[in-house]
Design brief:
Length: 199
């Protein structure tokens, strides 16, 4: 009898933990001004932080009405304001219509394979990214320019870009030499200051 009682207590405890987990992983959609519907998940144990995730139920990330996606650093949901900090693994994987992505300041982390095989992606602009994980941009065969506005080169995982990437990298003029001496130079043979773009 005591053994059965202990089992019952453990079962109730497991259900409680599971329900807490579901609550912590609360997801919602926001229609951005560019026309895409973006799927966010609230990050557990973080103070009002969310990450952009892939919708695994429909296996579709976004409904793109325009070719450019501009990711905003803050979103509001049910009267609460959340900071967008992370682009989760595979979040944009194989979004065939995506041609340009702008990652605004505040979004600091790009996870594994986040933009893998976005075959029509031509331009990436990043304002505050600090780390990019493995294969985040591999298979982006149309890529022709990457623009970074961070003075410190973001840390990189393995095979972040294709080895035969022919894109041009633009970085802050003050950090030009630092990027040329960093792992970024393994992928980009053409590295210029952003002043060349008029910034």
């Amino acid at each position: 009898m005591k053994h059965l009682y202990c089992k019952s207590i453990l079962f109730v405890l497991a259900l409680t933990i599971m329900s807490c987990g579901v609550k912590a992983q609360q997801s919602f959609y926001m229609a951005e001004h560019t026309g895409q519907s973006i799927h966010y998940t609230i990050i557990p144990k973080k103070n009002h932080e969310v990450k952009i995730v892939k919708d695994f139920l429909s296996n579709m990330n976004y409904i793109l009405l325009r070719n450019e996606v501009r990711l905003t650093p803050k979103v509001e949901y049910k009267g609460e304001v959340y900071q967008v900090t992370t682009i989760d693994k595979k979040a944009f994987e194989e979004v065939s219509s995506l041609k340009e992505i702008v990652i605004t300041s505040g979004i600091t982390t790009i996870d594994k394979e986040a933009f893998k095989n976005c075959k029509k992606l031509k331009k990436i602009t990043m304002y505050g990214v600090e780390s990019i994980a493995d294969k985040a941009f591999t298979g982006c065969e149309s890529l022709n320019s990457v623009v970074l506005f961070t003075l410190i080169p973001p840390t990189m995982g393995k095979e972040v870009f294709d080895k035969d990437c022919k894109a041009t990298l633009y970085v802050p003029d003050k950090a030009l030499q630092e990027y040329k001496n960093s792992p970024w130079a393994d992928y980009f043979t053409s590295i210029y200051g952003t002043s060349k773009l008029g910034y």
